[in-house]
Every structure is written in C-alpha cells, then in structure tokens.
Write a structure and sequence with these properties.
With 506 residues, the chain is of the alpha+beta class. It folds into 3 domains: 225 residues, GAF domain (Beta-Lactamase); 118 residues, no CATH class; 105 residues, Elongation Factor Tu (Ef-tu), domain 3 (Beta Barrel), CATH 2.40.30. Helices cover 40% and strands 25% of the residues. A hairpin with a 2-residue loop joins strand 16 and strand 17. The longest helix has 31 residues. The N terminus is likely disordered.
Length: 506
C-alpha cells in the first residue's frame, strides 16, 4: 500500500487540520501569480498530505500496541482512525461465534450468529436499546447472511442490506457504508468495523482499512493470548515433579501410628441383664429409668393371672390328696385293702405338692427382681406396658455406675490392625477439651451392622488409669484408636491406595 493513497478524501469530511493545510496551499498558489507556481504549490501540498498520513498511521499502530484491554482497543478503533479514513460514523461489533456448535456450517451457522455493538465513535458507552444501534446491527446481520461478502472488505450503499421500510433507512444522511472484518491470520471473523459516510468510498480507503484491520485484529489476538497465561505450575512442572519425588521419599522414612476415628459410648462393665423368665405380658415397670436400685428390689411386674390360677389349682389338689391320704390311713386299721391304697394316695399327695411348688415358683417369677445393686438402664417405661415378651428377652439392665468402659464402633472402611492394650483417646461430646486416655481390652473379630446399617467392629476399651473418675453412663463422643506404626506416606495415601486396589485388583 502506498502512503500517498491516504491523501484522497472528500472535502465535506476532511478534518479541520487538513482543511487549513489545503487553504494555505491554495493561498500560496494564488500568491505565486503564475501557473507554474500554482502547480508547484499543489505538488508540495500533496507531499505534505502523504507525510501526514504516514505519521498518523505510525501513531495509530503505536497506540494500538499500548492498549491493555479489549474495551480500550475497540474504543480506539472507533475513534482514532478518523485521522486516516474520513468517516462520519464508526461502530465496532462482536459476534457470538464461540457459542455456535462445532458441527454447524454455512447458512445454518450464520443464522445463529448475533452481532453486538461494543463501541461507537464519539460515545464512551453504547446504548444498545437505541434504534440506530439496532438498525446497524441488523444491517451487519443481513450482510453476514450473504456469506462471502462479509468475509472481506465490502462497500455498499443504502438501502442494500437494510430494511427499506425502516425509518432509519429512509432518513439516514450517511448512506455509504464500508464493512471491514477483523480477523488475524488463519483465524475466523469474530469482530467487525462498520464505517459510514455521505460520499462513496474509494479504493485507497479500502487499502487503508485493510491495513488498520490487520493491526487491530493482531492486537485483539495478542490480548486474548494474554488473558489466558500459562499456569505457574506448567512453567515449573519439572521442578514440582522433582520436589514431589523428594517429599515422597522423605515421607517414606517418617513413622507415625495409623489411627482412625470412630463413635464411642460410655457403657457399664458386666451389667445384670433383666430378662423375662417366662413368656408373659409386661403389666408395669416398678422403677424409673436411671433409678438407683438395691439387690432384691422388684423391677418388673408381669401379668400373673394364669400363673396365680395355676398355683391355686395346684394348692387345692394338694388339699384333696391330703384328705384322701388321711381317710385311707384311718381305714387301714381294720381294712387290709385300704393299706394297699394308702401307698398310692401318699404318692399322689407328693405329686400334688410338687406341682404346687412349681406353680408357686412360676408365680414368684412374675415379679422380676434385681440380683445386684446399681442403676436401672432402659428406655421409656410406657413402651413396655402391655407388651408381650418371650423367654429370655431383655427388658433392662442394672449396672454399677462406678464401673464403666468405652464401646467403640469402628467402621469396616476405617478399620486398623489393633492389639490388646492399644492406645485409645476418647473425646466426649460433653467435654471435648478434656480427652480421656484408655486402652483396648478386646475387639470383635467379626463386623456387625449397627442401627444405621453400617458394618462396624466393636472395640471395648477401659481407662488406662484404674483410679480415673468414671464418666456418666450413656455419654457419647468420638474416639481416636491408634494402630501399628506405618510410614507417613502410607498414612496420607491409605484411602487412595485402598480404592485403587479395590478397583484394579492389584
């Protein structure tokens, strides 16, 4: 492109500075008073215009390199190139080309493209609700639907690509438009520059617009690249990999105990289980939950209607057997036959007495008593009234509140190898800042599902200090159970290693 081409411009839109320059050139030509002097003045003026255009082009390209954001770049494009291209109105538009599906091509993709005005000459902010802005966007959309015409610089005159019935089309003073797509080398068109003026565009204007479009498109690509810098870890990934290997090697030599966290509850040691001795119905509970009971105190009253009836019947049978025995004893003095029947009667009396004693024993079992002193542990008494119980079904427990232990439910997924005497640190919810030291007493070999359906091993622990103050029964919290020592590397990656082995079978 020749710089001198930029000097061609219509007089109506030439900047004031250029008009003054031409006026001076014309005045000098008139003052020469000869045709040769006038020709020399015009030649000097043309050379000055060419130099000025070159200076403006260098200035614009230099300022473009200093734009730090796209907003500043588009504002510069909408306003500064007027020094080279005499336009009356300039707009910069962006498309949503990144939102179009990759498989869409041709008219289908073009119809989905929406053009949005991002900068207007002479305005610091764009009012996209303005009718003129909408009108220009519709013109660009219509131009884009034509296909090849929008891929390069395209000059046209209204009402081409515009709605003839739109008032903006009929009343527009700037009827000659120039579409300049902004696309870097081998890049799709994602932005465009629309220029409007009242006189037709010339070929020299096309060349200048192409030069400026290339500069601004390259600046846009550069800003897009700066917006997504390479992550810091990518720039130092070799150093990070080496550091990770060194840290992993060091962690392999640090030994720490393998620990796990599990819920814990304060439970009694060797409590007396109050179970139903016979199949019956609970009539009432004779104590309140948590009450202190003495040895032999009544705890549960079972319905004894049947048992009491059986005892009374058995007692009557004893009376009948005794009367028969007495009658035969009196008759055996004179009757030898009575002597033979007396032995049978005495045996029947013994059987009746045994049945009565059994009935009395069963009746006594209708009241369940405490075999040791302690605290009665059970739920709401109203849940037991009228409830049938089977033989051996537990109703409550009586425990010594001074003899307690800890029951830890270790989930199968968090189980560690435990040994008798392993350390356990208990954090009760009632006193989380006062951990308790305990030792493992025993651990179940088989996991069982708890009330929540989680399979867990039951671990029993007791105070490490036999003289420690016992905690209240029923308190809950969290226990940290210490297993065998392992490397810190394995301690940190135990779960990932377990998951990988389960998935791969290695």
């Amino acid at each position: 492109m020749r710089i001198s081409d930029a000097a061609t411009a219509e007089p109506a839109t030439v900047p004031i500075g250029r008009q003054e320059h031409r006026s001076k050139a014309a005045g000098n030509a008139q003052e020469g008073g000869s045709a040769g002097g006038a020709a020399k003045g015009v030649s000097a003026g043309a050379e000055g215009e060419a130099n000025n255009a070159g200076i403006q082009l260098i200035r614009i390209e230099g300022e473009v390199r200093r734009c730090k954001t796209r907003e500043v770049l588009w504002q510069h494009l909408a306003n500064e190139p007027v020094a080279l291209l005499p336009f009356g109105q300039a707009l910069v538009l962006q498309s949503n080309g990144n939102e179009i599906p990759a498989g869409w091509r041709g008219k289908r993709a073009a119809a989905r493209v929406r053009w949005t005005t991002v900068a207007v000459s002479g305005l610091t902010r764009v009012n996209r609700d303005a009718p003129m802005v909408r009108w220009y966007e519709n013109i660009v959309r219509s131009l884009w639907l034509d296909g090849d015409a929008a891929q390069g610089i395209h000059a046209f005159e209204l009402p081409e690509h515009a709605d003839p019935s739109d008032p903006c089309t009929t009343e527009a003073a700037l009827r000659h438009l120039l579409w300049v797509p902004l696309a870097d080398v081998d890049q799709p068109v994602k932005a465009g520059w629309l220029l409007a003026r009242s006189t037709p565009w010339e070929d020299s204007h096309h060349k200048l617009a192409a030069r400026l479009a290339g500069a601004y498109a390259h600046a846009d690509s550069a800003l897009a690249g700066r917006a997504k810098p390479a992550p810091a870890w990518r720039r130092h990934q070799h150093k990070l990999a080496l550091g990770a290997i060194v840290i992993a090697a060091l962690l392999a030599f640090v030994r720490v105990p393998l620990t796990t966290l599990a819920p814990v509850e304060v439970t009694p040691q060797e409590p007396f289980v109050v179970a139903a001795p016979v199949a019956a119905v609970v009539e009432r509970i004779l104590v309140t939950p948590g009450a202190q009971v003495a040895e032999g105190a009544p705890l549960v009253q079972l319905v004894d209607t049947t048992l009491r009836s059986d005892f009374e019947v058995a007692d009557q049978k004893v009376e009948v057997a005794r009367a028969k025995t007495l009658r035969l004893q009196q008759a055996s003095v004179e009757d030898s036959t009575a002597k033979r029947d007396l032995a049978i009667a005495q045996s029947e009396e013994s059987v009746a007495i045994a049945e009565r004693d059994y009935a009395r024993a069963m009746l006594d079992k209708s009241v369940i008593r405490a075999r040791q002193s302690g605290v009665a542990l059970f739920g709401d008494p109203r849940d037991w009234i009228g409830r049938p119980v089977a033989v051996g079904e537990a109703i409550m427990r009586v425990a010594d509140p001074k003899r307690v232990e800890f029951q830890v439910k270790v989930p199968v997924a968090d189980a560690v190898n435990l040994q008798d005497g392993a350390r356990v640190k208990v954090f009760l919810d009632a006193a989380p800042l006062e951990p308790l030291e305990a030792r493992v007493l025993r651990a179940a070999y088989k996991a069982e599902a708890d009330a929540a359906g989680v399979a867990a091993f039951t671990v029993t622990a007791r105070f490490a200090d036999p003289n420690a103050r016992p905690e209240r029964l029923g308190l809950r919290g969290t226990a940290r159970v210490y297993g065998e020592p392992v490397s810190l590397f394995y301690y940190l990656l135990r779960r990932p290693i377990t998951a990988v082995r389960q998935w791969t079978g290695v």
